[in-house]
Amino acid sequence: MKQENCPQNNPKFISIEPSGICALKRMFMNCMDWVPIVVAMGLAWRRRWWRFIIGGINRPLIFVLLFFWNLGGHTVSAEDSYLGFLVPGLVVMAAVSSSYSDLVNWFVLRRTFYRVLDEYMLAPISYSSLLIGHVLGAASKGFVLALLLFLFVRIFVHGFFISLYFLVQLFVICLTFACLAVAVAMVAGSDKDTLMFTNLFISPMTFFCGTFFPVEQLPGLLLHLSWSLPLTAATYNLRSLALTGTGHVDWFLQSLGWLTGFCLMAYFLLKRKVNS
Description:
One of its GO terms (cellular component) is ATP-binding cassette (ABC) transporter complex. It is a multi-pass membrane protein. The chain is mainly alpha-helical. It has one domain (64-70, 77-275). It has eleven helices and two strands. A two-stranded parallel sheet has the order 1-2. The radius of gyration is 22 Å and the shape is globular.
């Protein structure tokens, strides 16, 4: 909406719209100024969609194929097979990797190498819109890739359930790690710091949060540590939804709690970095 349409911004302009309607329109447009960021990220991915698909699902897909061939090469039921346990964990791995990796590299390179993050803030959008746009764009990419993987492996493993609750839980995982990517990018000094954090925390987390084996098999301290990580409850809830069609409210609420915490942390770190 052009600002001069509002009578309080241009006294010479005679508008037939009440000032309250102009204020509501301006408020609505301000709330939606993250949309162009999502569209721009979508257009970039559309031009290189095959690279993102191959890069996002190749590793979990190799895991599935290797276990499938070594377990006999026959289509199995998800209810009573190890592949039924493994596939939801690999879907989580794909969602985390695709939502986190590209976004953290995008912010770190533009903040430390190209030094253009301040120029982004010259645009008439708020910190929250900048955060929402990039988090939604990265999470949507991770969600699509993880869902493609889940649909593909149903060729080898039958009996999985897919529901709206399953999709919501999967998208919450993608949003959580997209927010974490922004937070990490705001404190990393270079791309080497990002790589170190990924190797020390993100990669082990994908293995010790119930992806390949139940965390109940871990020794005492590691068992409690695993349940204190942001991915364990989400992985267990997604697996329960995929295998039985029913989820656990307490695990889902834990996922929302981690999402809220990382979102607030990313917002304040982004605001502090730009202001400094």
